[in-house]
Amino acid sequence: MIGVRIQPDLLAAIDFWSAAQHDIPSRPEAMRRLLRAALGGTKHG
Fold first, then answer.
1. Is 40 left (phi over 0), alpha (psi -120 to 50) or beta?
2. Are 14 and 34 in contact (CB under 8 A)?
């Protein structure tokens, strides 16, 4: 586990993305999905 500080504008973008997903993932799950997608993973909404 790691802790990160995220600027408010980026946090708002993550929350906006999360709200647009069919299952509305939690913020940590949204971040995991976005990272997987950015790194070429296949597990994203």
1. left
2. yes
Q: How confident is the model over 1-45, as pLDDT tens digits?
A: 899 999 999 999 999 999 999 999 999 999 999 999 999 976 555
> Which amino acid is located at 32 in the chain?
R
Task: Centre a 10 Å sphere on the Cβ of residue 17 and count the other Cβ atoms it contains.
Answer: 15
Q: Which of 36, 33, 4 is nearest to 20 (CA)?
A: 33
Q: pTM, whole model, 2 decimals? A: 0.81
Tell me how far CA of residue 43 lies from CA of 16, 29, 33, in angstroms: 19, 11, 7
